[in-house]
């Protein structure tokens, strides 16, 4: 069974940095696009950044210029380096991946989320 597990959230002061990690485990044939999403209280989940299997990265909203997404295709891990954090970055951050598993096809997978809190 495929699972995504995030780590690295926590509390940081405004202007600080945090690095989030996500590891895919289980029976995996191929990992396609991987992304980070976030959801703040009372708001809809929004995409923060994504990276294709070939390494092409895109950033959305205020993440441009402050966050860096990267992946390791051997270890099936995803990282989000967040710099110059602002209180409005406070949210639960979710890892997403499009994964092909042997004998079960291609599906979307989500992690359980990790809390990021930025104090002013």
- Low-pLDDT stretches: none
How do the helices and strands follow one another from N- to C-terminus? EEEEEEEEEEE
Give the overall average pLDDT.
Answer: 97
Biggest sheet layout: 7 strands, mixed
Mass-distribution shape:
elongated
Helix content: under 10%
> How many β strands by DSSP?
11
Q: Radius of gyration in whole Å, from Cα?
A: 14 Å
Number of helices: 0
Strand content: over 45%
N-to-C span? 41 Å
Short description:
The protein has 120 residues and is mainly beta. The protein is built from no helices and eleven strands. The strands form two sheets. Strands 2, 4, 5, 6, 9, 10 and 11 form a seven-stranded mixed β-sheet that branches.
Task: Note the main attributes of this structure.
mainly beta, 59% strand, 120 residues, elongated, four-stranded antiparallel β-sheet, seven-stranded mixed β-sheet
Question: What report would you give on this structure?
Answer:
The protein is mainly beta and 120 residues long. It has no helices and eleven strands. Strands 2, 4, 5, 6, 9, 10 and 11 form a seven-stranded mixed β-sheet that branches. The protein starts with a strand and ends with a strand.
List the helices and strands and how they pair.
Elements: E1 3-7, E2 10-13, E3 18-25, E4 30-39, E5 46-51, E6 57-59, E7 67-72, E8 77-82, E9 91-101, E10 105-110, E11 114-119
Parallel strand pairs: 2-11
Antiparallel strand pairs: 1-3, 3-8, 4-5, 4-9, 5-6, 7-8, 9-10, 9-11
């Amino acid at each position: 069974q495929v699972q995504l597990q995030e780590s690295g959230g926590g509390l940081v002061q405004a202007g600080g940095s945090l690095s989030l990690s996500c590891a895919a485990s289980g029976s995996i044939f191929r990992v396609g696009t991987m992304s980070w999403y976030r959801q703040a209280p009372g708001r809809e989940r929004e995409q923060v950044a994504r990276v294709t299997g070939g390494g092409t990265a895109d950033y959305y909203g205020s993440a441009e210029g402050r966050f860096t997404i990267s992946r390791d295709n051997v270890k099936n891990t995803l990282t989000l380096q967040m710099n110059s954090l602002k209180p409005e970055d406070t949210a639960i951050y979710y890892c997403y991946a499009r994964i092909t598993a042997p004998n079960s096809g291609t599906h979307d997978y989500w992690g359980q989320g990790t809390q990021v809190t930025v104090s002013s």
